[in-house]
Known about the structure:
The complex is a heterodimer. Chain A is mostly beta strands. Chain A has one helix and eight strands, in the order E-E-E-H-E-E-E-E-E. In chain A, strands 3-2-8-6-7 form a five-stranded mixed β-sheet, with helices on one face. The longest helix of chain A is centred in the middle third of the chain and has 7 residues, at about 35-40. The radius of gyration of chain A is 13 Å and the shape is globular. Chain B is α/β, with parallel strands linked by helices. Chain B folds into three domains: about 5-120 and about 275-370, FAD/NAD(P)-binding domain; about 125-270, FAD/NAD(P)-binding domain, CATH 3.50.50.60; about 385-450, Arc Repressor Mutant, subunit A. In chain B, about 35% of the residues lie in helices and about 20% in strands. The longest helix of chain B is centred in the C-terminal third of the chain and has 28 residues, at about 345-370. Chain B is globular.
Amino acid sequence: MSELRIRGAVERPTIVTLRVDGTEVTAHAGESVAAALLAAGIKRLGRSARADAPRGAFCFMGACQECVVRIGGAPAQACITPVRDGMVIDLGRT
Amino acid sequence: MKSGAEEAFDLIVLGGGPAGISAALSAARHGVHTLLIDESPMPGGQVYRAVPGEFRINSPVRLGEDFKRGETLRRALAGSAVEVRLDLCVWNVAPGFLVQAAGPNGLFQGQSRAVIAATGAAERLYPFPGWTLPGVIGLAGATILLKSQQMLPGRRTLVCGVGPLLYAVASAILKEGAEVAAVVDAASFGEWVSCLTRMASRPDLTARGARWLWMLRRAGVPVLYRTKIIEARGTDAVTEAVVAPVNAQGQRQVGARTRSFAVDSVAVGHGLVPGTEASRLLKAKQVFRAERGGWTAEHDADGLTSIANFYVAGDGAGVAGAAAAEESGSLAGLAAARDLGRLDAQRHMTIATAIRRKRKRADRFGHAMAEMMRARPGLIDAATTDVVVCRCEDVTRTTLEATIAAGARTLNELKSWTRCGMGPCQGRFCSETAAELIAAKTGDRAGAGQLTARFPIRPVAIRQLVEGFDYEQEVPSPALVPM
């Protein structure tokens, strides 16, 4: 799929489909939502609380909360949530 | 798992990195009923992070030395008496001890006689214009993408900041055939050279560093010493990075030429800061040691804090790296076994002395690295007045400086007045900068203090906490009284 995925050391067997703001995105089971979206070219995951500036995954380790998106309606950190087939992801305001 | 079920252990270890795993193993070896909790789906921590369980590993060799060490630790853990709970984020540690955690599989509540906090470190990140743009990520985050997710941060990345991670990340990107626009290091080459003598205690790790440098040179990647990023540009994501020369303190040299690079990602990090949420929550006495990353719980050689049966280990006890973390974890686990009455003082002394010797060697290397990653306050001058310092609450440098000018002298005061540090990251990514801004006025970095830790130390959904709460059973309605 994307040219950001490193090949060779691992094999990613299962392809899953996510719905991101209504658009289908494919990913591999086990990937974090943030990594899967990055590979799909989706970097902006939200907007800041006050200045409404674009924000994306920043720390990738569950600390900064910048990558919080809505998954199945509930807020979740994209960087520590593994993708599941059929996940519905809402990035909110664009 | 329901909230009501409370489990009992002798010892609960918070964090499943090298320090936590070693601590749990060494305690359990002496008959301590031990639980290890980690927020990831697999133990290993950040440095030894596993690849997702769904991936099939073709070549363990290509995954590198850290992966190998991680697998060894994971195997040892699996073959031990340690109980392991994963996918659990600890949101409260109360005296006595009560540990409360939440995760995708439900809630956890455990009572224990002792606690070891092996919670690792967070990345220090000084702001600059554009640091909030998507595509600008932490250096540690870049290593997680590369090592665990097997994903490049971008096709062309600028790697900038301080410390050994710069070279680890840049060489990993190159190895996978992507481009590194430049490595931008606030340290001078001379600093690295003088660091070399102290690194001689770990020739293996020093050789690894040399290999990284050689890879960069061979690929023709510019390595710019005494330089820092001063701006990331782009509209919805970063497309350009601007760098400028700095002096020894990290301050921008006036009038010096800037350079600009077209990029699709920027990986930046300014060192590591020990994670102290649990020890602050328990009100363990804290000390400020700049050379070890800043604030940590005060502790003895085995990690025992000012609170009985509460220990700290690994980078969370002062940045010293993964190798030293294992030894410091073993020592904390051993001390817990002694303090819980599973190991007599004599035997403890014999075993601990041998580990302390090994630790000294690992520490020498680790402390040299930590020294390279120490705070360089001059770096904050990249943050121009309207730059957001507190990402969660969009609090700018101007607002913070006006508040400091009006009399705020501590992080807590700044927080009360401006909301800096009040957002969901709970001050993890603004405290270092805010404290330096206070210190710039007062000259007293330690005097800026720490933010008071309050539970939940990690965001947790109220919805999840009340899940399974039987209102009728927990709060029985009184019988109706006739009017």
